[in-house]
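SAMPLE LOG
Freezer: B-3
Tube label: C17
Construct: single chain, 124 aa
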Amino acid sequence: MKSVSEHKVDEKYYRLLMVVSSLEPLKTKILQVLAHLSPQRVSASELTMLLGYSKKARTIYRGVLDELEKDEFIIIDRLTPKHFSIQISPHHPLMAMMIELAIKVGEDYSSRLHQLIMERKYHE
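STRUCTURE (predicted):
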């Protein structure tokens, strides 16, 4: 078995790991969900449902979304003062890597998230 020093480690994946692991758990979960849905945008209520929170909790994480937007990790399109769509930023190098990883190895999770969104729309 090769030692760690013998493996070629891609520094960009190490950076991604370090950045994501340093985030608050809620921020990490938001980015994971959005990366697996990319390029699809989700509403705040869809994101709330996918995160497993009640609709009342939206105000709790709204500040978190603002912070992720400030860091350019996500893009928020404010459609009205109370309605907006959210997506992970494909322009941020580390977020582009998260999207790439989700596409390459996260197909099952992506499919489940899309299924949950469709089920929610069907029941509305």
